[in-house]
Amino acid sequence: MQAHPIVARDEWLTARRALLAKEKEATRLRDELNARRLALPWVKVTADYAFDTPTGMKTLAELFAGRGQLIVYHFMLGPDWTAGCPGCSFLADHLDGALPHLEHHDVTLTAVSRGPLTKIEAYKTRMGWRFPWVSSFGSSFNFDFNVSFTQDQLAGDKVVYNFTETRPENANDELPGLSAFIKDEAGNVYHTYSSYGRGPEELIGTLMILDRAPKGRNEATTMDFVRRHDEYEDAPKTHSCHAG
Predict the structure, then answer these.
(1) What DSSP letter does each residue of 192-243 carry, written as one string?
(2) Could you tell me the maximum CA-CA distance found in the chain, to the nearest angstrom?
(3) What is the pLDDT of residue 2?
(4) By the 8 A CB rule, do 182 and 69 touch?
(5) What is the overall mean pLDDT for the chain?
(6) What burial letters (b/e) apply to 222-242, b meaning 16+ CB within 10 Å?
(7) Per residue in 84-123, is it b (16+ CB within 10 Å) or e — as a string?
(8) For the whole model, what pTM was predicted?
(9) What is the pLDDT of residues 75-97, one digit of tens each?
(10) What's the rounded Cα separation, in Å, for the pair 194 and 200?
(11) Helix (H, G, I), strand (E, B) or coil at 94
């Protein structure tokens, strides 16, 4: 643990007020970033994407579920994977509580993976989650949004992830991300925003709490402490009361 000086209350208040000024600066910067995010231009989605859902095949427009806005979390669960990514699972643990608030604010949230629906449903039941989760298997959706990569791409000189060319050894067949869409009255769908890498990190409330704990995230590498919530040593092994 990092060594900390032990000081009188007045000295602590001086240091805390200096940090508060920086926190307020960061808050104002976040507000500015949010405004610039909302001001981004839109791109019309013209591809005919198809998604396998528990109620049958649906288009991207149908994933909006009658609402005007759609947030897609690109969940790392490939066709040959036996379980979802631990990091994506960590983030997904924070989604269910947001659903009623989002849905009453004209936003539908869904996860999308290339894994087949049967695999998605089995893992979703294991984790006890309720949020919508559909399969893009057989569609180019994941590839078009640069979160899935073919073996030929990974064998090449570079791949594009997070709007940047990177070496294939820094990538994977599946990577995480978040994308936002809006639908107009005529039914046209527009891509408004995407974020990758650590971009969706603010969705993970546990990290935001840890950032305020005395030891912080207490990690050697990014999220090295994270396990699927049923894989911690003292975790309960069944989730039947939450299965769905």
Answers:
(1) EEEEETTGGGGG-HHHHHHTTSTTTT--SSTTTT---TT-STT--S--GGG-
(2) 65
(3) 75
(4) yes
(5) 94
(6) ebeebebbeeeeeeeeebeee
(7) bbebbbbbbbebeeeeeebeeeebbbbbbbbbebebbeeb
(8) 0.92
(9) 999 999 999 999 999 999 999 99
(10) 9
(11) coil
